[in-house]
From TrEMBL:
<feature type="region of interest" description="Disordered">
    <location>
        <begin position="58"/>
        <end position="84"/>
    </location>
</feature>
<protein>
    <submittedName>
        <fullName>FlgB family protein</fullName>
    </submittedName>
</protein>
<dbReference type="InterPro" id="IPR001444">
    <property type="entry name" value="Flag_bb_rod_N"/>
</dbReference>
<dbReference type="Pfam" id="PF00460">
    <property type="entry name" value="Flg_bb_rod"/>
</dbReference>
<feature type="compositionally biased region" description="Polar residues">
    <location>
        <begin position="65"/>
        <end position="76"/>
    </location>
</feature>
<feature type="domain" description="Flagellar basal body rod protein N-terminal">
    <location>
        <begin position="20"/>
        <end position="38"/>
    </location>
</feature>
């Protein structure tokens, strides 16, 4: 029952997206001094979630809009300014993206905790 809730499915997707994006950010930081390396990123979660909306159940006409079908795990070049060696990684920007991604992950965990609490309360459990 718990795994089938749409809210928990969305939170699971958000947590997975945050983990994938954090991995891409870590690769960017690791290659900050690599000549010719171009910064990579993945599509934001809203785009990803909209792309999977067609798999969700609509409760009324027009409830869900279909997405563009964008692939969430595919990374793309961010297109920043390149250094003389061809590298365009900005450590400051990567740290900002990492902090934002961490907040997304913490939000997913908060949704899990809140949903778990509601389910426990509805079942009459106190633990």
């Amino acid at each position: 029952m718990f795994a089938r809730l749409e809210l928990t499915r969305m939170a699971q997707g958000l947590a997975a997206h945050a983990g994938t994006r954090l991995g891409v950010i870590a690769q960017n930081i690791a290659n900050a001094d690599t000549p010719g390396y171009r910064t990579r990123d993945i599509a934001d979660f809203a785009t990803t979630y909209a792309a999977t909306a067609e798999q969700m159940r609509a409760t009324r006409p027009g409830h869900l809009q279909t997405g563009t079908g964008a692939e969430t795990t595919e990374s793309f070049a961010s297109g920043g300014d390149a250094a003389p060696n061809g590298n365009d990684v900005s450590l400051e920007l990567e740290m900002v993206k990492a902090a934002s991604t961490r907040q997304e992950h913490e939000m997913a965990l908060a949704i899990y905790r809140a949903t778990s609490g509601v389910i426990r309360a509805s079942l009459g459990s106190r633990g």
